[in-house]
Amino acid sequence: MAIQGFNPLGTSVASGSFYTDTTGYTQGVMEADPAARYSLVAGVISRTDTNIYYGGLPIVENISQLKSNPQASIQLATASDSVSGFTTFNQSNNLFTLGANQVPTTTGGGTINYLRLGCNARISLACDPALRKYIGTPLGAVKVAWDFTNNQLVEAGSDNALAVKIIAFGLQNSKTVTIDQSTQAITWNAAGTCALVLL
Asked: For residue 6, is it within any domain?
């Protein structure tokens, strides 16, 4: 009797359909962790703030006033020594997409979830591809800072390092946020570089 070759687990991909490889990170997404999800904090953005907020940005947490809804007031950080956490897409269900934007965003008067430094959650953050030279070094040996112009992690100088640890890199296979300077459209770059960071 002839044996028919058959592989029930075989996968084929038609052009433009689903991918079989999903290796990589998405900027601003916290890694699944049952304990770390309790570290998510909802931050309120001032109504006068005109900045655009999305996952993976450094923020400053301001002291809030005790009211009927005492949520933390946040704003974008402008210096590494003032960073108190990073925004995340996780459970930020009130973000919106408008026009040509592909990335969920919010602005003044909105809210976005964030993770505080020191909470031991893992989050993917956009990073400079030059950091790849540190692959294979011990955890905690790499000192990084935030590039506020390009919104990404970069190698730190002697005095502006963030209190984070790089765990892994997704090199040119991760989704990062890109803002077109001419149209202001906020889109995904599927060939970006992210670092998985322990806060």
From this structure: no
Q: How confident is the model at residue 11 (pLDDT cuts 50, 70, 90)?
A: low
Pull the structure tokens for residue 26: 């998405």
Asked whether the beta carbons of 152 and 120 are under 8 A apart, the reply is no
What are the residues facing 45 on neighbouring strands? Answer: 74
User: Which residues are CB-contacts of 81 (< 8 A; sequence separation ≥ 6)?
Assistant: 160
Q: Is the pLDDT of residue 158 over 80?
A: no
Q: Residue holding tokens 């953005």?
A: 45
Q: Is 61 part of a structural domain of the chain? A: yes
In a domain, 66, yes or no: yes
Decide if 78 contacts 12 (C-beta within 8 A): no
pLDDT of 21 higher than 70: no
For 108-155, the DSSP string reads TT-EEEEEETTS--EEEEEB-GGGGGGTTSPTT---EEEETTTTEEEE
Q: How many domains does the chain have?
A: 1
Range of the domain at 177: 36-198
